[in-house]
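Support request from a user on the community tier.

User writes: "When I paste my structure tokens into the form, the page sometimes reloads and wipes my input. The last time it worked, I copied everything first. Here is what I submitted, just in case something in the input itself triggers the reload:"
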């Protein structure tokens, strides 16, 4: 064998080995790429599922929060409507020209005679002093009290009193009838 032949054999062998290494490297690179692509797809799918789950959770929370906010707004609006209704009732009964005012006062005075026997002083709201003084009969009319109308019936010794002022009667009626008022206003 000559040196030339030996060199050619070595070169051919090296070329063959290089081609085999390149082929193996390309095959390994394809396998690595395929594995990377598969892993990338898995990661992408997991991220997508996680994002969809989080988006669903956020959407549910937003809907619940919006519902709660709407319910709160409705309750506030209802409360304002109830307050305006009560204020309108107060304005109405505090009006000296309220239709039937004298009849209401006479009825309260008649009930007070049944309720309290003996010596009682009638302490009127100033607005109704004239009408109460006129209808008081044999009962003494005392100092005025604050209120929307009506009077306080008080024992002369101060031991017992009955509050028959319109604002107190309205408060009691309002408390007793609040459910019916709600139904009337909101159903």
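"...and here is what came back when it finally went through:"
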């Amino acid at each position: 064998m000559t040196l030339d032949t030996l060199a050619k054999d070595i070169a051919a062998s090296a070329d063959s080995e290089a081609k085999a290494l390149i082929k193996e490297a390309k095959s390994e690179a394809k396998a690595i790429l395929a594995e990377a692509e598969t892993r990338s797809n898995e990661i992408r799918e997991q991220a997508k599922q996680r994002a969809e789950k989080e988006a669903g959770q956020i959407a549910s929370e937003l809907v619940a929060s919006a519902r709660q906010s709407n319910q709160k707004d409705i309750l506030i609006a209802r409360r304002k409507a109830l307050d305006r209704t009560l204020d309108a009732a107060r304005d109405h009964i505090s009006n000296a020209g309220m239709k039937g005012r004298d009849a209401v006062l006479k009825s309260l005075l008649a009930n007070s005679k049944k309720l309290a026997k003996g010596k009682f002083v009638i302490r009127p709201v100033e607005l109704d002093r004239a009408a109460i003084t006129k209808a008081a009969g044999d009962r003494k009319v005392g100092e005025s009290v604050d209120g929307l109308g009506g009077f306080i019936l008080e024992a002369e010794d101060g031991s017992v009193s009955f509050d028959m002022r319109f604002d107190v009667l309205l408060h009691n009626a309002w408390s007793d009838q609040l459910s019916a008022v709600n139904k009337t206003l909101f159903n």
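Agent notes: The reload is a front-end session timeout and is unrelated to the input. The chain has two domains: 1-93, 99-186. Residues 99-186 form a domain with the hypothetical protein PF0899 fold fold (CATH 3.30.2320.30). Escalated to web team.
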